[in-house]
Amino acid sequence: MQETELAALVERHLAEHSLELDSLDITPVGKRRVVRITVDGDGPRGRGPLLDDISAASARISAALDESDVMGQAPYTLEVTSRGVSKPLTEPKHYRRNTGRLVRLWLEDREVLGRIKGVEDETLELDVEGQPVEVVLADIRKAVVQVEMNRKDDEGEVE
User: Fold this and answer.
1) Among 109, 113, 133, 146, who pairs with 102 as Cys (CB 3.0-4.6 Å)?
2) Residue 44 in this model has a pLDDT that exceeds 60
3) CA–CA distance from 118 to each of 93, 107, 126 (Å)?
4) How far apart are the first and last CA of the chain?
């Protein structure tokens, strides 16, 4: 099996659903392999992919793998999922897709908890306790979205 060929096949079918490959992991489990594909994308509101898009892409990737010899003859299990909130934010697009969400940032000299207001070039704009704060993306050592239960969005709808 060629990981490069597999990644190319997966990316081609994800692109049909306006999704992008975030990570591809192949783990041997006994005589089988587990193929874990993590996807990301803007989605209709610019806030990440919809489950329906991921489901459709998963079905298409599964069919393409069945038609291809890229996985060889060994049996495998396919798992396709979104990035989720537990994965650290590492690129400007991750911050942009999480605009409005509460994030915890670890900087060189401090920790910051704030709500993402936007991303301009290489600068993250936050609201920290009602005060605007700008952070240079290169200064962030780690950033993680904070889970908020029953938080209302800007239109008053529960997210």
Assistant:
1) 146
2) yes
3) 10, 18, 7
4) 41
